[in-house]
């Protein structure tokens, strides 16, 4: 039972006279109070890493105004901390202790107290303390609160036992979820929102003697203890103390087996008794309780035996440990049976509630762990930036194994399937190999390389215990203003289809027979269908301009552009498909814009029935909430449309119970539920999770290994697109003296982009790897670096300016939502200064084309570097000629934003650089003119008839080089359109027609 908060309420006039009496009234054996803040000026207004008080808020108006005020009625000293506030979102202030000094030890005290001047406004004031971590802004937050329902000064007392772990926000995602009072980094106050107010506070101090239960705790080695029938479960009980000090008083643990689904005397031998840890017992002492189970010959589902613990003298475990006699002897557990028979047997045994649980996916950070068994959850995920602490492969595996252990307490012990957005490598994991984003892979035009990047990603993901990847994105990006455009392989469905070899890299063979391997994962084709075609200005999500908007197309455009990649994915055996947040409006169908999560004609009709997709459909993050109607209608609509599993990060309880209610009422059919659960179970069996639910970390040593990074380095090199190369400036010679400048030359955060460690990514030194500047230096180049080009520019042979975007993801990065397609003022200035002083190469590090036409004349060589990932040496490889430039534009590079959207195949097409453009180095350009092109066309047509794709591609490439050589720097609409069309025809396998289009472009050059 929590201790009540106590308060001393005094009129200001009596306060000074009575305060000594109050202090003398403390218990005789209590330690004296320890001041934290007196507010007499001893602590400055300052922030990390210094010792200081600072304000914060949800926007610029929310932080309160603070001052140290002279007050005659100050409870202590002459000054108090006073302030005013007018908070619309959230706001407050913090005192962080100095990060360059040791954390404070508060473990000898009962709690923290302070004086607060009340105004009887009914506002709730939250008070947080900061525990563990490396400093006050990288610690765990523990919160308590009080209500301003009084007038005048009141001493607020908050026992440490009243503080609870914050579940809505943690700056580092949580550390150990244990209030460790020996490492305190300060406190924070959150003020009431919604009305103007003022406050005053004084004399923050620690008080009272610590209760042993605040520093001593009893725990068990696990919340769940599975045991084979007939075996003996062993539950280890451990006593631990804060600061590892011995206990002052004895601790007793009484135990007994009671309740559960197992029958005492029949399924197990009941046990009871008491464990005693005498006074003076050291922290870490443990004892074991053994519970024997009994064997019979019948097949059974799993049975539970709760072990009830009653603890005195220490904090009891948060949960009653469960002993689980494993399910055994049932057909679905037999790995020799075909998967379809195992699925049918298991499905026939499941209750409605168990089926609803399998259709529910929760986020790890919003999860009550015991709910895995209580709700029979089928899946968990980590969203962008949702990681264990520390963020290591071992911690990931331990975390996921812990979740899987919880699933063992369910009746049929159906394993969880855990998913992550590993969209360019295992990008949530610190130290993983980070690949170029998909737009860069599209530029490589190398399906074999795409498959290898997928294989590296799968191996690193599976080695951390994760069997499911929410990738690849098969969107066909039709407007570069979209904040997700870099997640697309390109604007041409033929290009996207050609790069779907990544599915085999992730999953292995199309029949799913490789999914049980320790280096393969279940892949996800997303976002079905048309997310890359949303119209600018059509989004209704917050401040987004295009993401999650409306795609308006004819039926033929839908099939040719957006559906085609998903048909290819189904043929390649894709395991799961994720519908888009966006709405689809098919001209003439009479439906108008409908959210994809609700489009049964597309999910049930097109995907499952016409294409024959036999995996399962997983919704996007809280997508069900975007549908019309009340929650029951939203659930019913999505499930009936064909969504098999719902991603409901923090509302998993609500979804599961609502689905059960709708099914009991007959508004969701039993056959629909059985279809959904059968699909989910099928993939779990194919992944081998029933036989091997826990992480196989045998491949963990290869995470971020030189072999894996070599694949990423090659991908970075092949993704570089050389757009202009006046006078053959590239490749550079290592003997040249090079001046390097620009915001993205030495910033690995910018280089890796969004979806790197966190959802939005971040600039700076975020992940291990090599920046472009470091790659140039490691190549042995003679390099001088000045980020802003402020260093003198005289005496250099050539300048390299690396400019571009800062990281973003999804609609946050939409153009018009704080982003544009123009370089920053600092980047433009760096280009102007360097290119005005010497021959220059400009590299653009970005997720989409940047408008550079007004400076193109002063730039000698221009490179589209995209987002190359962690291996900057790959960029250096092509700059210095260790590898040739071979990349080609995966999207059209516009002259101006007014041209957008602009795509290959448009009737009007006059870009800065056309789709497919990409100059080469290290390759001799063939000689010849119209006659040579005529011969190439005939030979390419013959190769097409023979089905000789390799020769067909080579012949088209020779024709393309001829056109680019003749065109030089003179780009016209008459040249650009057939040139772009030719690349589409090449990817579609029409080699003869591709050369004919290139011949047309040659004539226009």
From TrEMBL:
<dbReference type="InterPro" id="IPR051915">
    <property type="entry name" value="Cellulose_Degrad_GH3"/>
</dbReference>
<dbReference type="InterPro" id="IPR036962">
    <property type="entry name" value="Glyco_hydro_3_N_sf"/>
</dbReference>
<comment type="similarity">
    <text>Belongs to the glycosyl hydrolase 3 family.</text>
</comment>
<dbReference type="GO" id="GO:0008810">
    <property type="term" value="F:cellulase activity"/>
</dbReference>
<dbReference type="InterPro" id="IPR001764">
    <property type="entry name" value="Glyco_hydro_3_N"/>
</dbReference>
<keyword id="KW-0326">Glycosidase</keyword>
<dbReference type="Pfam" id="PF00933">
    <property type="entry name" value="Glyco_hydro_3"/>
</dbReference>
<dbReference type="InterPro" id="IPR008979">
    <property type="entry name" value="Galactose-bd-like_sf"/>
</dbReference>
<keyword id="KW-0732">Signal</keyword>
<dbReference type="Pfam" id="PF03160">
    <property type="entry name" value="Calx-beta"/>
</dbReference>
<dbReference type="InterPro" id="IPR038081">
    <property type="entry name" value="CalX-like_sf"/>
</dbReference>
<dbReference type="InterPro" id="IPR036881">
    <property type="entry name" value="Glyco_hydro_3_C_sf"/>
</dbReference>
<feature type="domain" description="Calx-beta">
    <location>
        <begin position="205"/>
        <end position="310"/>
    </location>
</feature>
<dbReference type="GO" id="GO:0016020">
    <property type="term" value="C:membrane"/>
</dbReference>
<dbReference type="GO" id="GO:0030245">
    <property type="term" value="P:cellulose catabolic process"/>
</dbReference>
<feature type="signal peptide">
    <location>
        <begin position="1"/>
        <end position="27"/>
    </location>
</feature>
<keyword id="KW-0378">Hydrolase</keyword>
<keyword id="KW-0677">Repeat</keyword>
<dbReference type="Pfam" id="PF03425">
    <property type="entry name" value="CBM_11"/>
</dbReference>
<keyword id="KW-0106">Calcium</keyword>
<dbReference type="GO" id="GO:0008422">
    <property type="term" value="F:beta-glucosidase activity"/>
</dbReference>
<dbReference type="InterPro" id="IPR003644">
    <property type="entry name" value="Calx_beta"/>
</dbReference>
<dbReference type="GO" id="GO:0007154">
    <property type="term" value="P:cell communication"/>
</dbReference>
<dbReference type="Pfam" id="PF01915">
    <property type="entry name" value="Glyco_hydro_3_C"/>
</dbReference>
<dbReference type="InterPro" id="IPR005087">
    <property type="entry name" value="CBM11"/>
</dbReference>
<dbReference type="InterPro" id="IPR017853">
    <property type="entry name" value="GH"/>
</dbReference>
<dbReference type="InterPro" id="IPR002772">
    <property type="entry name" value="Glyco_hydro_3_C"/>
</dbReference>
<protein>
    <recommendedName>
        <fullName>beta-glucosidase</fullName>
        <ecNumber>3.2.1.21</ecNumber>
    </recommendedName>
</protein>
